[in-house]
Amino acid sequence: MSEVLVHICCGICASECVQRLKEEGFRITGFFYNPNIYPESEYERRLEITRRVSEILEFELLEGDYDKERWSDLIKGFESELEGRNRCQICFKMRLNRTQRRSKELDTPYFTTTLTVSPYKDSQLINDIGKSIDKFSFLERDFKERGGFKRAIEFSKTYNLYRQNYCGCMYSRR
Q1: Which of 39, 85, 96, 132 lies at 20 to 30 Å from 123 by C-alpha?
Q2: Does 166 reside within a domain?
Q3: Contacts made by residues 120-126, CB under 8 angstroms, sequence distance 24+
Q4: Which CATH number do you get for residue 122?
């Protein structure tokens, strides 16, 4: 059984992605790394839901640093952009870079992300960023295929889990 480190943006998105990767025969380790989430109370709430999902679906969960200052520095100058533009690409790259480094530290052969389950995210762009970081170990997936997002929503309802209504950063709340 091969291992994969899964960057997790939130527990609800993770539910579908983890189940699908398990069906493919992967052993999952989750990695919650989201220094973009604002405010900190929202970050803590999403982390807590992710912990619950990891218990329900029985996978190990690692937690990255909440280095919001580094995120702010990286996106400086892009604050006023619309959702999905350069600011988001920088954010995706930051989180996927850290996930790839963590996978190497853990000697995990593959990494991927739950970001592609969202109908509001460009899966091709996210996959291209992942492949540009490491074309050999990034698992290219579009988890929204086969009703992935709908299944994640159903999971949240089944377990009565909080589901946020914005991507995460202070600018996506607009």
Answers
A1: 39
A2: no
A3: 120/83, 120/84, 120/167, 121/84, 122/84, 125/89, 125/92, 126/92, 126/96
A4: 3.40.50.620
